[in-house]
Design a protein that fits this description.
Layout: E1 3-6, E2 13-16, H1 33-55, E3 61-66, H2 80-83, H3 85-93, E4 99-105, H4 109-125, E5 129-130, E6 135-138, E7 141-146, E8 162-168, H5 182-187, E9 192-199, H6 211-226, E10 232-239, E11 247-253, H7 257-272, E12 276-280, H8 285-296, H9 299-305
Length: about 300
């Protein structure tokens, strides 16, 4: 039976499935320039979310769902609020004028235990009050941690006046933490929805993985394309001349296309000295499909499928 955790402050019920142990992911890419670039991009996106939500009366609450929270450990030489995903989420949440829920999912039990220790230490230093072992509150900000598979994250509590941001940053291609229907489930409940997903997660390069693992990505991306409402677009950003063939999938408002492109290009130019090839699902669907194929198929496979 699912674990139930009730929010006595606003009667919201969050229900998650128990964690299932998966093989340990490859962590050799954890502190690379890619991580720094990702954090840079995450900072920009979350800053935009706060600024927009603060100025839009139709939004009453923000919900940020990190499907792959990790251990919440920052770097020794960088402040916690700038050197790990949970820290970045909390730092931006403090600038919100609206209620904001930060939901952190970590499937690995040992990593989750580290996450709790790091959250407890850093959040209480910031003035948060612990409510049990996995919930912290400070004013309008609530942080919740779940030892659960991100693919089981519920969305039944999302309402039409909630603005939802989803982070999906697995450590391995086989650990994609967003279920196929997730984007559509959220889109059915609110028009305020953005997401950032990693497409890479293999230090040896995507095309060195078995075809059956790579081809499953088409379904993952297709489901996000199908969930796009009229006012949103989906960006596929591929890092050029990258031996690991890293890429990012960003769902954002059509009116933020130029800003999103600038932010992605800037993050990888500043942190890795890399350029990025960008295509948009709605603006150039043919090129978007071609970029997907080129990212996932080898040259021989491209010739076979035509």
């Amino acid at each position: 039976m699912a674990n139930r955790r009730a929010d006595t402050q606003n009667d919201t019920l969050f229900e998650v499935e128990p964690a299932q142990r998966l093989p340990d992911a490859d962590t050799s890419v954890g502190r690379s320039w890619r991580t720094q670039a990702k954090h840079d991009l995450m900072n920009k996106i979350e800053g935009q979310e706060i600024g927009a939500a603060n100025s839009i009366n139709a939004i009453n609450r923000l919900i940020w769902i990190d499907l792959t929270a990790g251990d919440g450990a920052g770097s020794e030489d960088v402040d916690w609020s700038r050197s790990c995903s949970p820290g970045i989420h909390v730092a931006h949440a403090m600038n919100s004028a609206k209620l904001i829920e930060i939901l952190l999912y970590e499937i690995n039990s040992a990593t989750y235990a580290q996450l709790l220790r790091n959250l407890n230490s850093n959040l209480q230093t910031m003035g948060f009050v612990a409510h049990g072992d996995s919930i912290w509150r400070l004013g309008h900000v609530t942080v919740r941690a779940y030892n659960a598979d991100g693919r089981t994250a519920p969305v039944n509590f999302v309402g039409a006046q909630d603005a939802v941001l989803v982070i999906n940053d697995p450590n391995a291609i086989t650990d994609w933490a967003m279920r196929d229907s997730f984007a559509q489930e959220i889109t059915d409940r609110t028009s305020w929805f953005r997401s950032l997903s990693t497409l890479g997660c293999n230090p040896s390069g995507i095309k060195r993985l078995p075809f059956t693992e790579r081809v499953s990505w088409f379904g993952m991306i297709d489901e996000q394309q199908a969930a796009l409402p009229r006012h949103r677009d989906l960006m596929l950003a591929v890092i050029e001349k990258d031996s690991s063939q890293w890429a990012y999938l960003v769902s954002t408002a059509e009116r933020w296309r130029a800003t999103s492109e600038r932010d992605v290009r800037g993050a990888f130019r500043t942190n890795g000295g890399k350029t990025v090839a960008i295509t948009w699902c709605r603006r150039d669907p043919a090129q978007f499909e071609e970029t997907k194929r080129a990212l996932i198929y080898t040259k021989d496979e491209m010739r076979e499928v035509g």
